[in-house]
Amino acid sequence: MKGGLGQLKIGSVVVTSAWRLIKANPAVWAIFALIVIFSAIVPEKFLSVSNFVAILKNFAVTSMLAVGPTFVILLGSIDVSYMGVWMFGGALVWLLYPYLGLASIAIYPIFGLLVGLFNGVVHVKARVPSFILTLAVTAVFAFLTTYVRNVSGVLTLTVPAYNFLRESPIPYLPSPFLLALPVIVIALFIMFFTKFGTYFCAIGSNEEGAKLAGVNVEKYKTLAFTLSGLITGLGSIAIFVHLGCQTRVDFDPSELVRGLAAIVLGGTPLAGGMGGPHRTLLGALVYVLIFNGLFLLPGVDPNHLKLYVGTLLLGAVIAASRALRGALIA
Amino acid sequence: MAQTWISREWLQRNLNTIIPISGLIALVIALRAANPYFLTSWDSVITLVYGMSWFLIAACGLTLVILMGSFDFSVPSVLKLSAMIFAVLYPFIGFASIPVSIAVGLIFGFINGMLLARFNIPSFMATLATSMMAEGLAQVISGGYTRMITDPAFRALSTTMIFGLPSIFYWTIITWIIFIFITFATPFGRMIYAVGGNIVGTRLAGINVKMVRTLVFMICSMLASIAGILYASQIQGAHMQVGVLDMIPLFASVVVGGTALTGGVGGVHRTLLGVLIIRWLDSGLSMLAIDLNVRMIIFGAIAIVMTILTIDRRRIRIMK
Amino acid sequence: MSAANPIMEVKNVSKTFDRVVTALDNVSIEVRGNEIVSVVGENGAGKSTLMKILVGVYQPDSGEMYYLGRRVPFPKDPLDALRRGISIVYQERGVIPHLKVYQFLFLGLEEKFTKLGRLQLGKIIGLAKSVFEELGLECDLTSSIYELPPSTQKMVEIARAILSIKLMMVGDGGSEITPIIILDEPTAPLSLEERDELFNYLLNLKKSNSFIFVSHIIPEVMKFSDRIYVLRDGRVVAHHDLSSEKVTEDQLFREIVGRESYYDLWAKYVYGVGEVRERRAILSVRNLAKKGYFENVSFDLHEGECIGLFGPAGCGKSEIAKALYGEISADNGKIIVDGKEAKLKGEPYVRIKMGIGYFSGETGKELFLFWPIKKNLSIVNFEKVTKKPLKIASVISFKAESSLAEKIMKKLRIRAPSVEAECYSLSGGNKQKVSVGKWLEKNPKILVLEDPTIGIDVGAREEIYEVLLEMKRNGTAMILVSDDPKEYTILCDKIISVRNGIVQAVYTNEEFRRLMGL
Fold it and tell me: B 119-148 residues with CB below 8 A of A?
């Protein structure tokens, strides 16, 4: 009897929390809608196993670019250094492989951590607007990566020794997705089971109030940037494997927009204070579904990707701009 | 008296001016040392003029936006799109393609301005999105191919020699002077500084902030368009690489000139200094056979350092 | 512990800023167990400086602090103050809107609930529940702060203050001491009913806590305090124990504003208010409403007339003023300026064109602090300083700009080296004069004034009143919103009393004076 009641209670908790989740995250509706639409238009292509795997892979890549910076966006700041971490981190792995062997993949998180720490310290101490700062960091590392490629006279910075990572032990679940899972778990843990998530939200919601409440704002801002770098560094391993154990060597702004778009689509407002990695995951899924489905449609030219990405980002920020109404912003 | 005007305070107050000027002098000396032929022949002067004329026009537009405390990423993309429209349409409608091209620029500026003023979307985000769209459109109308125009009239727009200097030089200087005049001596210019200095106060003083913001973004995109048209004329056509590597140098030259990223401080007049420094540095570095990517890294670093130095921290309580 | 013995006591506290401005001069106060002690005074009387010393934000220049009879050093920082059982609830900046209630309750206190880096959410929520039960507070712990009504937000803040003291003091016999909670103008954002709700809550909490209630709203102070300290110009000028003596609101009011010189100033102008002759109505407001702020506001403003909107802070008076100026938009009703109907969804620039100007004492808001005086003065007067040489574009004439600025500076006696001086280097009073000066030559039909003399000294006040009265004589109509009843009697012909966003009554200057006992 008691157990039955308990089960009933658990069941109702699940239902109510599922309902709350849907109510709080319009992205869930968008995901349903996209699946329904594309299943209706191009069922044989969209609902295939290979497409499912492709979606999972792309989801892994997009979410790994977006989950880290979400912590910084919670502050109301912005971090676009993920491109730099991803690109140059890979170059470092390639450069150091001859010396460190397989351990050189650990460069990724270490490099991410250091870049994040640098961003945080410069932003907090020298008071540089975070967007410009992290964009410059990304640009510097992106050009550095291209430079490394040019100087070493190879076409790609590939480390074939890691090819074993591309084999997935579980059928239908691609290895980039499996590599992304622990990173997602870490991010969610930080958000919901440590005080950091609360602190980041508090700073984004009312920085002065957080200071008055005894939160060391400078410390936790720096920490958010550092975490963002670290998580991106860890996540970059999944992207590295996805691309065939190599890194990107030329900067592509549509990749940069990808992360931002996933965050905005997920419903974390740029003004900060609310949202989190859980929303970004949903946003990443929306982003992936849109582009996955779009390129299955007849007459859609992948060469015009930038046009679509730009339009999508624009639509997303306009839709999300309600949270910013009323304030006069830069 | 000497003590009073070269005091520590004086130095701090005029840091924005001292750094660019001393930087320029140091740069000229260094370039002279590295290359004895630097600026000795008239040809090298003309090369420099070609290198920075169109660039200065675009930088003037960006300066206006930064003076308001906003940012515009779409400058290089609009520049490319305008160059492309001009080159693609020229064989069909001739110079009538110039107004078309500028109109497209104005539309992009209008969208940017409205996104900020009406929808309250941070300008860097809004312009990042529109820059992607402009890039995409350029790709669509060109099909990704280089468009060469061999018609001498097309080329004459920028390269007609007047008093030993190409016409693009005069276009640029006229634009530059007009915008110095607008920012210093017209109410509209005053309003741009006002928005950058204290946006709430500007609104309360009865200035239509939304209109000023929209207009400034339109001017910025229009100048990017003009720069693109002149550049297309200078290089006899347009290709997809136009403007690709220009965002960092553009931004660097604005802040190196001494215009603070936080708005309200600096001006179009300063941007000439910044452009001189950045373009000379660029040509000096390429003379030393330094890789393009490394040059970009250097510009990025300069931009960040100058941003740190020029931000007026007295007026910013919370930095996002 | 007997209630008469003070828990906390400060003696002879003095504090000066920049070695010149004396904020506090030999102030001594004490806080006893389980009482509400009020500290009242005007803006700038030193209330907030004293509170900041008590919570360790400022260090005093001299003075002593006693805790439970023992001499202790002044707290070094807010955390140190917490350990002594003193916490503060700030006026408005303390709330963090997007946090959940339990997150806000424990913000900054998570250390004690962390195990191996993992937050023990169950423990936190359990404790939060028991705290809320103990305090008699009812609200959903998982809702976000901004979803709560303002009074509940304040209560949650107070609960947070008590909780943080309790958690900090566990280990030094924390259960035995009485926490001291400082409430800095807690009622400012609240409506009248919400205030009553808050006060009932406080009276309930008094059983186990002491409160320092900082306010300038006299009726509230009279109603709920056990003792009252009156602060004026950095000194304690009166101390009343309401259990043993009777004090009238009137007496308290005189003690608060009783500066001789200010009184003189008031006496000089108070009878100077002219008769309102039948003049043209220049502004007609009909049934103006904005949901949640004010409703059904109607009045006529005539040329050269000044109408005051009077009421407690948060009653909707400043929102009405802002709606007239276009800083916020009303939802309903009509605003007719000189026969022309204004759009309700107006921006300030539209209203200025119609002839409405605005001046607020909050100088940081309106002034361009890093601009020279002349640019600040010409920003609304472009048509006066521009020429149209080519008939198409207007060009600023720097000469005209300077002479305009010099003219205004002379008239207002703005003390500055030149018209080129940057505004941030001016004193508060001079800043205010620059702020009001820009309207002098603009000659708006209507000038909306919000706290025009807040935080400035008597001399500067007088000069600003002079300017305003002269503009009034020249036919400028005015709307005044202020916290100082005297200001109304100096400037206004008619006073509209507003409560909870509804017009209660209309008084003439004389009736108002009688009502206020002036």
Answer: 119-126, 128-137, 139-140, 144
| B201 interfaces chain C, CB cutoff of 8 Å | yes
Band (pLDDT 50/70/90 cuts) for residue C518 is low
With 0-12 / 13-18 / 19 or more C-beta atoms within 10 angstroms meaning exposed / middle / buried, residue A296 is middle
* Residue B311 contacts C where some CB pair is shorter than 8 Å: no
Contact in structure between A293 and A52 (CB atoms under 8 Å): no
Please state, as a whole number, how many other Cβ atoms lie within 10 Å of the Cβ of residue B178: 12
pLDDT tens for A27-68 read: 888 888 888 988 888 888 888 888 999 999 999 999 999 999
CA–CA dist C189, C505 (Å, integer): 22
Rounded to a whole number, what is the distance in Å from the CA of A215 to chain C's nearest CA? Answer: 5
Instruction: Return the closest-CA partner of residue C279 out of C8, C476, C63, C127.
Output: C476
The arithmetic mean of pLDDT across residues C343-368, rounded, is: 84
C424 touches chain B (CB under 8 A): yes
What's CA A59's distance to the chain center, in Å? Answer: 9
In C198-271, which ranges are E strands? 210-215, 227-232, 235-241
Structure tokens at B24: 């320029």
Neighbours of C188 (CB within 10 A): 17
pLDDT of residue A184: 95
d(CA A242, CA A158): 12
Residue of C382, C442, C427 lying closest to C21 (CA atoms): C427
Angle CA C472–C474–C479, to nearest 5: 25
Q: Residue A168, SS3?
A: coil
C505 has a pLDDT exceeding 90: no
Listed residue (C77, C72, C68, C83) closest to C8, CA to CA: C68
d(CA C341, CA C354) in angstroms, rounded, equals: 10
The CB density around residue B266, as the number of other CB atoms within 10 Å, is 26
**Which residue of B184, B204, B316 to mutate against C (max C Cβ within 10 Å)?**
B204
Cβ distance B197 to C370 less than 8 Å, yes or no, reads yes
- Listing DSSP states for A202-264 in one string gives HHHH-HHHHHHTT--HHHHHHHHHHHHHHHHHHHHHHHHHHTTSB---S--HHHHHHHHHHHH
Nearest alpha carbon to residue C33 among C3, C54, C70, C65:
C3
Q: With contacts defined as CB-CB under 8 Å, which chain A residues touch C122?
A: none
**Which residue in A126, A129, A329 is closest to B261 by CB distance?**
A129
Q: How many Cβ atoms sit within 10 Å of the Cβ of residue B34? A: 12
Q: What is the 3-state secondary structure (H, E, C) of chain B?
A: CHHHHCCHHHHHHCHHHHHHHHHHHHHHHHHHHHCCCCCCCHHHHHHHHHHHHHHHHHHHHHHHHHHCCCCCCCHHHHHHHHHHHHHHHHHHHHHHHHHHHHHHHHHHHHHHHHHHHCCCCCHHHHHHHHHHHHHHHHHHHHCCCCEECCCHHHHHHHHCEECCEEHHHHHHHHHHHHHHHHHHHCHHHHHHHHHHHCHHHHHHCCCCHHHHHHHHHHHHHHHHHHHHHHHHHHHCEECCCCCCCCHHHHHHHHHHHCCCCCCCCCCHHHHHHHHHHHHHHHHHHHHCCCCHHHHHHHHHHHHHHHHHHHCCHHHCCCCC
Q: Are A211 and A95 in contact (CB under 8 A)?
A: no
- Separation of alpha carbons C232 and A64, rounded Å: 60
> CA C195 to CA C314: how far, in whole Å?
11
pTM of the model: 0.86
Judged by DSSP in three states, C77 sits in coil
**Interacting residues of B151 by C-beta distance below 8 A, sequence separation 6+:** B90
Q: For the complex shown, is ipTM > 0.85?
A: no
Tokens encoding A234: 């860890």
- Report the distance separating Cα B319 and Cα A77, nearest Å: 8
Residue A139 three-state SS:
helix
